[in-house]
Design goal:
Blueprint: H1 12-16, H2 24-28, H3 32-49, H4 55-67, H5 71-79, H6 81-92, H7 100-129, H8 137-143, H9 161-178
Length: about 180
């Protein structure tokens, strides 16, 4: 039995399409910055929700809150959803004990897979709870990337489209990772 390095590709087909390693952080590339920025952005947004003391800090807080839009991270997350799912699943196929790099990769891939699984659930719930605000310009500026292609004037059933959008991509990633030994892939 040969020992496989974590730096080896799963197989030649995965390597050919850019998944050159078995480790999440190496495969994800520059998208790792998104994972670092999202928690910081969420923290800033949470902190801006509290009322600061003083008139000057209140105007600064309101100004920053108006400029803080979620559209860019939302768009990046939706467009890279398949990549994130694939990278996380590749790493989860090789879970094991090891050095701090391997542990960090495993934790990162678990966080990513939780995000990948929760996203199709949270997006429709968020949109349903904010159904009345979907036509509001300020709401569109902040969260419009979540529903820009949806025909929200038709019915609330359209909110299930993100479930199918993300679900198809996740299913594809699962099938590709599970069928890694099939010669057509």
């Amino acid at each position: 039995m040969t020992k496989v390095s974590v730096f080896d590709p799963v197989n030649a087909n995965f390597e050919a399409v850019g998944y050159e390693y078995r480790q999440f952080m190496l495969n994800i590339g520059t998208l790792i910055f998104m994972f670092m920025i999202l928690p910081m952005l969420a923290l800033v947004s949470l902190l801006l929700g509290f009322k600061p003391c003083g008139k000057k800090s209140n105007s600064w807080s309101q100004s920053l809150k108006e400029k803080l839009f979620w559209n860019a991270p939302i768009r990046m997350l939706t467009e890279s959803y398949s990549i994130i799912a694939m990278c996380a699943l590749i790493n989860l196929m090789e879970i094991g004990k090891g050095n701090s790099f391997r542990i960090t990769n495993t934790v990162s891939s678990i966080v990513a897979i939780v995000l990948v699984i929760l996203l199709p659930i949270l997006v429709p719930v968020f949109l349903y709870k904010n159904w009345e605000n979907l036509n509001d310009e300020d709401f569109k500026k902040k969260y419009g990337a979540l529903y820009e292609e949806l025909k929200i004037e038709e019915s609330k059933w359209v909110l299930l489209e993100p479930v199918f959008f993300f679900g198809r991509r996740f299913f594809l990633a699962v099938v590709l990772c599970l069928s890694k030994e099939i010669f057509i892939w």
